[in-house]
Amino acid sequence: MNKNVVVLGGGTGQSVLLSGLKKFPVNITAVVSVADDGRNTGKLREQFNIPAMGDVRRVLIALSETEDFVAELFSYRFKGDCDLGGNNVGNLLLTAMSDICGNLSSGVKEISKILNLKGEVLPLTDDNVVLMGEMNDGSIIEGEHNITLSPKKIKHVFYKETPIVNTEVINKIKDSDAIILSMGSVYTSIIPNLLCKEVLDAIDSSNAKMKAKMTLPVISIEGEELSSINSEINKYYTDMFNSLKEQMASASSKYTYTVTYNVYENMIEENKVISITIYERIVDDSAKKNTMNKIKTYNIDAATKEQITQSNNIAQILFGKDYKTIIRKSIKDYVVSNKMMKESDFNYTYTGVKPFYIKEGKLHLIFNEGELVDSKYGVLDITINN
Length: 386
Fold this sequence. Notes:
CATH topology of the largest domain: Rossmann fold
Strand order of the largest sheet: 3-2-1-7-8-11-12-13-14
Helix content: 25-40%
Shape: globular
Distance between the termini: 57 Å
CATH class of the largest domain: Alpha Beta
Mean pLDDT: 86
Order of helices and strands: EHEHHHHHEEEHEHEHHEEEHEEEEHHEEE
């Protein structure tokens, strides 16, 4: 019997994750935040007093198993200065169906039949919600689009008026075997789903043995999305979550699988290198302790848009021909000075194939739990100094 998986989110990240997840034998429910008010979506919301439909449209396309041209039709955007200029067909259809059916949720159900979905799509609410943001300087910004554009740091977000959560959303969460907080903007895509007490209560009382909070990068260079690398990252962590979910199915405790990331841009001589570090953590919610920590890295040459899989060339540029000796000494000094290992026991040989990243022009090597020293010391992130 297929497991029930609920994916909470919004924005591009949720649709990217769902396009991979639908290939697995699971029952998918996508719960979509509906606070987007940018550009043409904002105009339709204002004119028809409905919640945002743009992210709903992306999720519908991601889960669709119909012909490619239908998905292309839903994404088609009218061009020019005409009254329809800037709008796309999918948003207009969702607006029309919401008007015909009485609300967005009912409209989505009808359109889902046309698209032959592998799963179910539920708007978080049918209310025309407005997201508010309080910044670190105390100022208040109204509207998701304005919050995203602001250069100020966000302190927290909240709704202008508390929305009524769709009852079906609560029921699906309670009946779920796994819950994923999908990748995307934390403050404007993920947290809006968690601002409602009913949702938090449903998550706490759900059957899910494994919950996931996945925030994954969508990498682009000069506006061009690196689809092959993004797909590789998405597949790896989707596969990992499904594997963990199966392993934990009979466990007595409940677990949370968390994935977060950082991106660093560096200049190595004349070459721009983009480094991404992705952090995995499994927490035993009952014992309140970590059961796994892991870091995976991706490094991209911005000129060729290809992955850099070994650190040898970069290390040689940074440290010269004696780079292997310098790296070995840095690692030895780190583990010995932190009393993780006796100097006489150190026998590591650098090969260049370890996970690595560049931050502020410095090379960092990653040793995951138990790879170099006892696992009790966790993940080692060692900065190599000349």
